[in-house]
Specification:
By secondary structure, the chain is an alpha+beta fold. The chain is 32% helix and 26% strand. Strand 9 and strand 10 form a beta hairpin. It starts with 33 loop residues before the first strand and ends in an 8-residue tail after the last strand. The N terminus is likely disordered.
């Protein structure tokens, strides 16, 4: 979270709520005695609590946890990074205790010494079992800068259209998951999706001649001399075009680097009239 001196200035604060930084539990926490456990257990009320109790009664410190149910198989899988620095048990003994438990179907562990990433889970999925890739923002967004440097406006146009294609496919998934949702409900879910996947905290304001979009903490290359992101604009334009039916053109944009706030405007394309 970006903190700029006070709660009022925190750009992750909105009028409605405060957002907190989320770390995806795929990296090894700091520590000299970190182990990762993968546990498959019955999907019943109270089972996860019993698993946690196995660790806590042996003074094993739980560092990070993720869990996902498989409803059709009436089970859930959890991977837990734990610290054995002050434990009164070994990892092998704790594993055997877990395997003897009537609520545990399978259990494994890995010593995470000199290991950076989760050893068990693959692939990463979202929504309707769609596989996703996790990529660092800087190198990904620098692709656009290099393309524009080499091709000029043609490169910018390519990235804009790629952004539209990207969000067009994503919108199909939203509509599949929420077939009866209103336009407003879809837009709220899209805003949530953009936030949780790292694109920023969005606010859309409909204007007589188009839209104004405000994004708090947007992804931008680590190059203050290049503040455009045509892929980003194209992805946003496609969302609004699909939801509201107007073909849009980017009219203006302003990135406040210090406060991590991007504001850009779209205007409706006037068919049959020359655009200025």
């Amino acid at each position: 979270m970006w903190l700029l001196g006070s709660r009022k200035q925190d750009p992750n604060m909105t009028k409605e709520r405060e957002y907190f930084e989320k770390s995806v539990a795929i990296t090894t926490p700091a520590g000299d005695h970190i182990f990762e456990f993968l546990i498959e257990a019955k999907d019943q009320v109270g089972i996860f609590e019993k698993i946690v109790q196995v660790f806590t009664k042996h003074d094993v410190y739980i560092r990070t946890v993720s869990a996902a149910p498989e409803e059709r198989k009436q089970k859930f899988t959890t991977n837990i990074f734990v610290d054995f620095s002050k434990a009164n048990s070994t990892a092998d003994d704790l594993l055997e205790e877990l395997r003897r438990s009537p609520f545990v179907k399978k259990a494994y562990f890995e010593d995470m010494k000199e290991r950076l990433f989760d050893r068990f889970l693959f692939p990463v999925k979202i929504m309707n079992e769609d596989r996703i890739l996790l990529m660092r923002v800087g190198p990904l967004l620098s692709v656009e800068k290099h393309l524009v440097d080499q091709m000029g406006s043609a490169g910018a146009a390519i990235m804009y259209e790629l952004g539209k294609s990207y969000s067009g496919e994503a919108l199909k998934q939203y509509r599949s998951a929420l077939p009866n949702a209103s336009t407003e409900a879809l837009l709220e879910n899209i805003k949530d999706g953009l936030r949780v996947t790292g694109w920023g905290i969005f606010d859309f304001n409909r204007l007589p001649d188009g839209f104004e979009v405000t994004v708090i903490d947007p992804p931008n290359p680590n190059d203050n001399k290049y503040t455009e992101n045509r892929f980003f604009y194209g992805a946003t334009a496609k969302i609004l075009e699909e939801l509201y039916g107007d073909e849009l053109l980017i009219a203006s944009s302003n990135l406040d680097i210090r406060n991590r706030r991007l504001v850009f405007r779209f205007k409706k394309k006037l068919h049959g009239a020359r655009q200025t």
